[in-house]
């Protein structure tokens, strides 16, 4: 994962112009190339393309409880767009994206910039520690936070009591948004930090030397030199973060066990799709919701990449 | 070169077949030969697969398998409640993978029967065992003349209370809901740190039972006319009950903690609530919780009434064994559903180790069960005092074929009402219109009352 990102942030691959000679060696090489990707392609088709196609096929049908299944073209999609529960979910994840994405990127960038300038053992240790939450499986992490947020068992109670205050209800309808932001940020900042950090390590130190000779301080080097150089990496992780946030599912689904009335089944579009499929047995409608969410994610990511096309290096 | 290419081809093909082949062969294997949690006693007898989550069910299965040479139960615990339903639902959609016999709560029977996932057991002699069950219990598993499951355990409701807390604050055991409200006030004003009870926003079947006590009959549905449903969720009875509880919550006399969370479980036993409005399986539930107050003295009393002159008994939960449409040997599966909890020995395990409330009359009406003294309640004979009368007075209840959706919406609306975002009347009006709209969207002809 990280190596490929370093590659994109480095110099653009040099194009070697080779005369297109239809030689037998060349053709054979091509065939061997296909063989090398064949295992991946088979798995890719079997576990991604086929299920996607099947889900799309499902979404074009309607199955109601009272009547059977019928082919209804895009009727489900019209219903999804008209479904206030779906729209509320999209608005909710959009709000999460607005808060969470910049927060994560800023935190990750700051930490990576600081760690990049340090060469002590403490820096290596901190890097590992900040990365550790990402190594904890998302579900386990969410369960752990569920315990930390619990009104009865949370160590926060003792902490607040020590200062003579009462701990806030982390799982209330007003605070759950921030509680979730906290869980996701805790989990992902380390991962983004590592990506940015490796991009920074790939930068030629001569540039910094030149900057120092020109009289740039540490702060200026970080803001004016380092950050712009790794901007394509920043764009990339922002897209990761954006896609992840729009598909928000694991954390609210796990925390539902401790806050069932607040984290309702329609809290995020993915949760809503899950509920429709497995609680209300509306598999067709659930497929339509998933595809609609996919379109939202696609538009969101495309829009972002389009707006940042000068920085991303992808144009 | 050629040889290398050949080798590469062989490896790639082998890898692909291994990967894809592995997937298909393992699913085929699972369908053909199920793995059982229990040991099969008589290996050559035909097997019936069963999904159930009853506590101590292993022993019941062993008992059955030892006693039968014509059939053996192959049991799997596929999760409790919704966990199992999600899996069962997926097997229905897939058209394979369902067990022969499945444990279901009565509230979801219609939801699965309408998907043609359950067999009508009258063709397999269900009516032969009808006399073994009370009228209310039988009504819960029937729809019109069809019978979709054999009742197992019930959830007649009672009031479990902390005698030590009541005594300390001089509160007498409330017999009506008016007295209950007064007791709640007395406890709060007397300096009791906790609340008299919890009115959970996600009470689902519990909340529905409280509404039913004041005459709510939210649904009329008959699987013989599967496209017609009557919905009446905003009736005056439900509105009165919800107002009663949200008013008490506003005055901070009752708690509004979410049920079935770890926090709630602890609060049930650590003295945060003086009363646990519970089904007959409640005592077993309490016993299994940690963090209990060691000085607690629990007693059981009948559930408070709106009109003591005309008491109404209510039910929370209760489950049954249904035979799935995918069952391989349907008659044999029906036999298992009818007989697994059809002996005194099986029920002794169910009662003493599983804390189940039997719906099977030979046990329900036995002297043993009536006189059973419970050490948890200081030796009180809670069946005689509370639950037998509650079960006898229960008339049955009709659930909707979209109960999970209706409950999810009930949770949303009760949350809105108890946090003061809307009035209790408005919440139930909104619940009614949401559910009606959903039912119409599912193709039902909806009659509103």
Protein described:
The complex is a heterodimer of chains A (315) and B (449). By secondary structure, chain A is mainly alpha-helical. Chain A has one domain: MetI-like (MetI-like fold, Orthogonal Bundle). Chain A contains 15 helices and 2 strands. In chain A, strands 1-2 form a two-stranded antiparallel ribbon. In chain A, strand 1 and strand 2 form a beta hairpin. In chain A, helix 3 packs across helix 14, helix 4 packs across helix 8 and helix 4 packs antiparallel against helix 11. The longest helix of chain A has 36 residues. The radius of gyration of chain A is 24 Å and the shape is globular. Chain B has 2 domains: 167 residues, D-Maltodextrin-Binding Protein, domain 2 (3-Layer(aba) Sandwich), CATH 3.40.190; 207 residues, 3-Layer(aba) Sandwich (D-Maltodextrin-Binding Protein, domain 2), CATH 3.40.190.10. Helix content of chain B is 44%, strand content 14%. The longest helix of chain B has 31 residues. The chains are: A mainly alpha (315), B alpha/beta (449).
Show the largest interface.
A-B, 35 and 46 residues
In terms of structural class, how would the helical and strand content of chain A be classed? Answer: mainly alpha
- Please state the average pLDDT score of chain B: 90
Output the number of helix runs of chain B.
18
Could you spell the SSE succession of chain B in H and E letters?
A: HEHEHEHHEEEHHHEEHHEHEEHHHHHHHE
Query: Which residues of chain A sit in consecutive blocks of at least 5 with pLDDT less than 50?
Result: 1-14
Q: Measured on Cα atoms, how large is the radius of gyration of chain B?
A: 25 Å
Principal-axis shape of chain B: globular
CATH homolog superfamily of chain A = MetI-like
Let me know the average pLDDT of chain A: 88
Please provide the count of β strands of chain A: 2
Measured on Cα atoms, how large is the radius of gyration of chain A? 24 Å
Q: Give the strand line-up of the largest sheet of chain A.
A: 1-2
Number of domains of chain B: 2
CATH class identity of the largest domain in chain B: Alpha Beta
For the record, the count of structural domains of chain A works out to 1
- Helix % of chain A is over 70%
């Amino acid at each position: 994962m990280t190596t490929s990102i370093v590659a994109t942030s480095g110099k653009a691959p040099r194009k070697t112009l080779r005369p297109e000679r239809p030689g037998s060696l060349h053709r054979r090489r091509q065939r061997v190339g296909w063989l090398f990707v064949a295992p991946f392609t088979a798995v890719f088709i079997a576990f991604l393309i086929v299920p996607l196609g099947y889900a799309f096929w499902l979404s074009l049908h309607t199955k109601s409880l009272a009547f059977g299944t019928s082919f209804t073209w895009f009727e489900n999609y019209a219903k999804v767009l008209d479904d206030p529960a779906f729209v509320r979910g999209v608005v909710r994840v959009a709000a999460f994206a607005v808060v969470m994405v910049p927060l994560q990127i800023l935190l990750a960038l700051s930490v990576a910039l600081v760690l990049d300038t340090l060469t002590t053992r403490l820096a290596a240790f901190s890097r590992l520690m900040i990365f550790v939450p990402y190594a904890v499986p998302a579900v386990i992490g969410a369960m752990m936070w569920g315990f930390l947020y619990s009104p009865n068992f949370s160590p926060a109670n003792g902490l607040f009591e020590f200062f003579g205050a009462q701990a806030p209800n982390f799982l209330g309808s007003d605070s759950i948004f921030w509680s979730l932001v906290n869980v996701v940020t805790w989990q992902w900042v380390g991962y983004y930090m590592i990506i940015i950090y490796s991009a920074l390590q790939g930068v030629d130190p001569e540039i910094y030397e030149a900057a120092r000779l020109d009289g740039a301080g540490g702060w200026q080097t970080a803001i004016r030199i380092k950050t712009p150089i790794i901007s394509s990496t920043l764009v990339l992780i922002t897209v990761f973060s954006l896609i992840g946030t729009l598909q928000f599912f694991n954390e609210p689904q796990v925390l539902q066990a401790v806050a069932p009335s607040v984290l309702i089944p329609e809290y995020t579009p993915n949760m809503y799709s899950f509920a429709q499929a497995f609680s209300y047995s509306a598999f067709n409608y659930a497929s339509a919701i998933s595809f609609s969410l996919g379109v939202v994610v696609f538009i969101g990511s495309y829009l972002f990449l389009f707006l940042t096309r000068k920085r991303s290096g992808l144009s | 070169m050629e040889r290398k290419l050949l080798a590469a081809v062989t490896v790639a093909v082998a890898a692909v077949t291994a990967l894809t082949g592995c997937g298909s062969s393992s699913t085929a294997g699972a369908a053909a030969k199920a793995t059982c949690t229990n040991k099969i006693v008589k290996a050559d007898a035909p097997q019936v697969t069963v999904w159930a989550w009853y506590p101590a069910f292993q022993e019941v299965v062993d008992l059955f398998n030892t006693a039968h040479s014509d059939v053996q139960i192959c049991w799997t615990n596929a999760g409790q409640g919704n966990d199992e339903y999600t899996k069962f639902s997926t097997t229905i959609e897939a058209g394979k993978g369902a067990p022969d016999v499945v444990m279901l709560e009565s509230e979801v029977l219609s939801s699965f029967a309408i998907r043609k996932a359950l067999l009508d057991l009258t063709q397999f002699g269900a009516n032969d065992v009808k006399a073994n069950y009370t009228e209310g219990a039988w009504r819960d598993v029937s729809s019109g003349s069809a019978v979709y499951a054999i009742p197992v355990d019930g959830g007649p409701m009672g009031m479990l209370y902390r005698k030590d807390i009541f005594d300390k604050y001089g509160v007498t055991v409330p017999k009506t809901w008016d007295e209950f409200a007064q007791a709640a006030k007395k406890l709060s004003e007397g300096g009791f740190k906790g609340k008299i009870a919890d009115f959970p926003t996600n009470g689902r079947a519990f909340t529905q039972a409280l509404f039913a006590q004041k005459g709510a009959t939210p649904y009329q549905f008959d699987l013989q006319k599967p496209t017609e449903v009557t919905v009446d969720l905003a009736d005056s009875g439900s509105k009165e009950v919800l107002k009663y509880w949200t008013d008490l919550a506003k005055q901070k006399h009752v708690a509004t903690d979410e049920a079935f969370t770890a926090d709630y479980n602890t609060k049930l036993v650590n003295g945060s609530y003086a009363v646990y409005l519970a089904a007959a399986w409640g005592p077993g539930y309490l016993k299994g919780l940690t963090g209990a107050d060691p000085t607690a003295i629990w007693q059981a009393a009948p559930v408070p009434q709106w009109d003591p002159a005309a008491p109404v008994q209510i039910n929370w939960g209760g489950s049954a064994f249904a035979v799935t449409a995918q069952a391989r040997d349907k008659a044999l599966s029906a036999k298992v559903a009818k007989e697994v909890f059809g002996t005194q020995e099986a029920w002794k395990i169910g009662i003493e180790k599983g804390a189940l409330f039997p719906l099977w009359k030979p046990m329900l009406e036995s002297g043993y069960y009536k006189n059973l003294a419970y050490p948890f309640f200081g030796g009180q004979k809670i069946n005689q005092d509370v639950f037998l009368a509650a079960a006898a007075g229960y008339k049955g209840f009709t659930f909707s074929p979209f109960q999970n959706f209706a409950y999810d919406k009930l949770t949303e609306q009760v949350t809105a009402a108890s946090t003061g975002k809307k009035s209790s009347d408005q919440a139930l009006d909104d619940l009614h219109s949401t559910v009606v709209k959903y039912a119409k969207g599912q193709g039902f002809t909806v009659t509103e009352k």
